[in-house]
Design brief:
The protein has 390 residues and is of the alpha/beta class. Helices cover 43% and strands 8% of the residues. The protein is elongated.
Length: 390
């Protein structure tokens, strides 16, 4: 594999000729690059292309490349990518040297990977893969969870008009600890929380921390990737603008509906691993929510929206998670331009009738009719279970 150093987080780099001579041209062995891909086993089961997309403390510790992901070609004096190699190495070394509160508390090793929106960190040895003998590394998990969560974050940006690096504040930390003692120390000594359960701090400076070996997750690789993706919209939406979380202001439908929606959009399924949820929501209609919502609305003619759009998070029943997801599905598909103002209204504690009127021009009865009509036109009567992501 030839790794192009253009896949760095920074702006494209202009490589000039060395002082006192012409431009370095490389050789045939390195394809005129001046560098070759790092083959050190230090990178383990993580593709170099994944490493190139983000900042990674594990890559920075590679004894061969120091995070540059390439090394000098042994057959020539360098080439057009040599300067970029040095710049990438310097960038990764600076990242690895930055103080980190969990590292200062627990001591090494604490792995860290950082993208445009999120920072994933933790101490994980290996997780359970789809097959009995599969044991993907914690290093690989942090990379894949970050890649998929960044995809969700890009969609959230697009729908709510957020700007990367400015609104909401970034990078948002999501921390994963395989040992319960590490998780508890972080909660008690860094966050100031009590107990030992999973934590979402939902304010202007959000944070998530979880023990991967918890009974709910059992070190399952795919479940934990889904957890990261599902949690990302919760944290971003809470942090935005005034830092208010809408789940306890009568807009749990928006908080949960969005999290379910982005999880499915990115992963193709909903595993619904949210620490605030009382239920495992897959029990409702076996997780086949399109056909399930269509059938449920067909059997229940009473208005749904006045109650649904005023619930607090603990009040949501399993079917109401699906209905909340469906309302968000309707809005993001038919009225995407309304989403920023809907979120602002929810943060301000405004009742749903106000944003329905102001953003959609609808009162409750007409909104109910429009949503139900859209469900009838869009959702199938029967639905096949999607192939489970591994």
């Amino acid at each position: 594999m030839i790794l192009l150093l253009a896949l760095t987080l920074g702006a494209p780099m202009q490589v000039g000729p060395p002082e006192g001579g012409g431009a370095l041209e490389g050789c045939r062995r390195c394809d005129r690059r001046g560098v070759v891909d790092c083959t050190d086993a230090w990178h383990g089961d993580v593709p170099l292309a994944w490493e190139a997309e983000v900042l990674c403390s594990v890559a920075a510790s590679c004894p061969s490349c120091g995070g540059a992901l390439v090394v000098d070609c042994a057959k020539c004096d360098g080439g057009p990518e040599s300067a970029a190699m040095e710049a990438r190495r310097a960038e990764l070394q600076a990242f690895a040297a930055k103080p980190h509160p969990a590292l200062e508390l627990l001591g090494p090793p604490v792995m860290r990977v950082e993208g445009h929106h999120l920072e994933l960190a933790g101490r994980i040895r290996a997780l359970r893969g789809p097959k009995k003998k599969d044991r993907p590394s914690g290093h690989r998990f942090l990379h894949e969870a970050l890649r998929e969560s960044e995809r969700a974050a890009d969609l959230v940006d697009a729908h709510f008009g957020f700007e990367v690096g400015k609104e909401p504040p970034s990078p948002i930390p999501l921390w994963f600890w395989q040992d319960l003692d590490d998780h508890v120390r972080v909660l008690h000594e860094l966050v100031g929380a009590t107990g030992s359960g999973d934590l979402k701090r939902l304010d202007r400076h959000p944070l998530f921390s979880v023990c991967t070996a918890d009974d709910q997750f059992q070190d399952d690789y795919a479940q934990l990737v889904a957890l990261a993706v599902h949690t990302t919209p919760h944290l971003m939406m809470a942090a935005a603008w005034d830092g208010r979380w809408v789940g306890d202001q009568g807009a749990a439908w928006l908080d949960e509906g969005a999290a379910h929606w982005y999880e499915e959009k990115v992963l193709g399924e909903r595993r619904h691993l949210c620490v605030e949820e009382t239920y495992t929501t897959e029990v409702w209609e076996a997780g086949l929510w399109r056909a399930g919502v269509r059938k449920y609305l067909g059997r229940n003619a009473d208005p749904m929206l006045p109650r649904l759009l005023a619930l607090q998070l603990p009040e949501l029943r399993p079917e109401e998670h699906a209905l909340a997801w469906s309302v968000y599905d309707w809005l993001v598909t038919a009225h995407p331009e309304a989403l920023p103002e809907v979120l602002k209204a929810a943060k301000a504690g405004a009742p749903a009738r106000e944003w329905l009127r102001d953003q959609l021009g609808l009162a409750f009865p007409r909104a109910e009719e429009a949503w139900r009509d859209w469900v009838d036109e869009t959702y199938p009567r029967k639905e096949k279970r999607p192939k489970r992501r591994r």
